[in-house]
Amino acid sequence: MKFAKITTIMLWVFLGITIFLVISLLSNLNENASDSGMSAWINANLYWAYALFGVAIAAALVLEFANTITDKKATRSALVAILFMVAVVGIAYMFSDSEIPKFYGVEKFIENGDLTANVSKWIGTGLIATYILIALSVIGIIWSSISRVFK
Question: What is the C-alpha to C-alpha distance for residues 147 and 10, in angstroms, rounded to an integer?
């Protein structure tokens, strides 16, 4: 059986289940807010929506992963992007400081254990990585404008 036929069958099954759940919910709606039957159908519809959302996310990730593996150019560009992000985070981590900043109320966060030297280091890493990416995007915008003039 072809992949397209399997997905079409799955989509029709999902649609059928959805229609059944919606019709059942609509037929059980009433003014009584404490009706357990109505609550059960509302919960069933919510769980079905969560399940469909999870299936959609899983399908998107699996299909994109399969596409990346089968296409050499996509694999290469994905690896370059991952290496670039690792390099940016690595550079930002090297330049970040683990010193806990001094501000009003910092003692409360230190006593709770919410703010440690490690947390401070990763906050600094995130900030510096953001600065690096902003600088690279500004440089890219300027470069594209200048290179257009010379062409």
Answer: 50
